[in-house]
Amino acid sequence: MATFKINGTDIYYEEKGSGPAIIFTHGHSMYHKQWVPQIDYFSNSYRTVAWDVRGHGNSSLPEGEVDPELFSKDLAALMDKLELPSAILCGLSMGGHISLQTAVRYPERVQALVLIGTPFTNTFNWFEKTTAPFSRLATRLIPLRTTAKLTADALSKITPSNHDFVMEAFGLMTHRNFIRHWAGNLRMESKDDLEKVKCPTLILYGDKDNMVGRQQAELGARIPGAIIHQIPNAHHLTNLDNSDEVNRRIEDFLNGLSG
């Protein structure tokens, strides 16, 4: 457990295990404990790192507009702090998008990508173009605890224990910081960059994921050589809903890299 200051913020991270490094990046409004099933599994053979994106968990959020370009810069800075010239990056949702952008912006730093339920744009079709501006307004008007409960209810239909985790994660954010960070998250954009990814890439998504499931086929088609698998009986918190299958798919992918 450690914190370091970079790009104007305090970044929290935890390490476990030794070997090739895997850095896990959580989704929006979540925090590093999202990855407990993967840390417990992969730390036997890998150096696992789970961190809190600025404004989440135990990481701070400086004043001012949240620049989404800082997310990948923070991740690269974390690698510098850990003296990692390169690493395997694994992320879910926003964390997947951060990992994707890091692979585009710092290609020499990324050995491989594991993208779980990852959006690459907020303007994919009419649905995103309509709901993204609405969600930005709604987050301002609706109390944070109400947003948290609605999110927890939606993401715990398969795995009831997700409910307490989501409520706990939201509880580590203030309403003001949630609004500020969500606005930055909605400005993340990679639809013109997918072909720039040069590292081996695994794409996983839940068969019940109605949040970003519509983007996955194009994500897989446009990243050169990407491997894509649908995870059964899983919603957007795919790594928690079906951790055994997610771990198996990741392990097979990583074993293939060394083979």
What is the compact description of this entry?
Helix content is 41%, strand content 18%. With 259 residues, it is of the alpha/beta class.
Characterization of this structure:
This protein has helices at 36-42, 69-81, 94-105, 126-141, 144-155, 162-170, 175-185, 216-222, 238-241, 243-258; strands at 2-6, 9-16, 21-25, 47-51, 87-92, 110-116, 201-206, 227-231. By secondary structure, the protein is α/β, with parallel strands linked by helices. The protein has a single domain (2-258), classed as Rossmann fold (3-Layer(aba) Sandwich). Helix 3 (94-105) links the parallel strand 5 (87-92) and strand 6 (110-116). Helix 1 crosses helix 10 (243-258). The model has no long low-confidence stretch (mean pLDDT 94).
Secondary-structure blueprint:
Blueprint: E1 2-6, E2 9-16, E3 21-25, H1 36-42, E4 47-51, H2 69-81, E5 87-92, H3 94-105, E6 110-116, H4 126-141, H5 144-155, H6 162-170, H7 175-185, E7 201-206, H8 216-222, E8 227-231, H9 238-241, H10 243-258
Parallel strand pairs: 3-4, 3-5, 5-6, 6-7, 7-8
Antiparallel strand pairs: 1-2, 2-4
Helix pairs in contact: 1-10, 2-3, 5-6
